[in-house]
Write a structure and sequence with these properties.
alpha+beta; six-stranded antiparallel beta sheet; 10 strands; 24% helix; globular
Length: 188
């Protein structure tokens, strides 16, 4: 019998603090002197969607948040720092555990994938590396054509500046994701 406080299964929070995320996103954009149009265009999202996000009225996908972080040239953890809830998008839950403030910048996340999920991540900025360590279940992960299937306790490190995969088969999987950003891509 497993005590409830020892469970590794995700317990998603009801929602993210969209207002805090929106204010933070707006601050990051304005610090750079960028218009809504510039960031929206560069990130490949509609200006109206970006405006809603900044007003705290959006429910962004993980892909949208990653694209915004990449265009703002900040680690993903810097963008989502105000969010304390689990981010949940199409069978993938992720939560920032810690973010280093040294150089290189290191973010650590908890990630859970439901059973039978295949998710391709767009490449991060040049030089970014990921290390995935599986906690439970099995997970196929890695850069395109260099994927590995990991069991609990297994780790895999790879260049994450190109498309990379996270996939489960018949059972869910939990993992620790460590992302190391090169020195030029640190929070500002």
């Amino acid at each position: 019998m497993i005590d409830d406080h020892l469970r590794l299964d995700p317990i998603p929070e009801p929602s993210i603090d969209a207002e805090a995320l929106g204010r933070h996103l707006q601050q990051l954009r304005e610090t750079r002197g960028w218009s809504l149009s510039r960031l929206a265009n560069d990130a490949g999202i509609a200006k109206s969607n970006l405006c809603r996000l900044e007003q705290g009225n959006g429910n962004p996908t993980l892909d949208t948040l990653w694209r915004l972080a990449a265009q703002l040239e900040v680690p993903f953890g810097t963008l989502i720092k105000p969010v304390t809830a689990v981010l949940d998008d199409q069978g993938v839950q992720i939560q920032l555990i810690d973010q280093g403030h040294d150089r290189p910048s290191v973010d650590v996340y908890w990630m859970h994938l439901d059973a039978q999920v295949e998710r391709w991540s767009l490449g991060h900025p040049k030089g970014v590396r990921e290390t995935i360590t599986v906690i439970s279940g099995s997970l196929c992960t890695g850069a395109e054509e260099l994927t590995r299937t990991l069991a609990p306790g297994d780790s895999h490190s790879f260049a994450a500046d190109g498309p990379h995969l996270y996939a489960t088969e018949d059972q869910a999987s939990s993992a620790i994701v460590t992302i190391v950003y090169p020195t030029r891509t640190v929070p500002t």
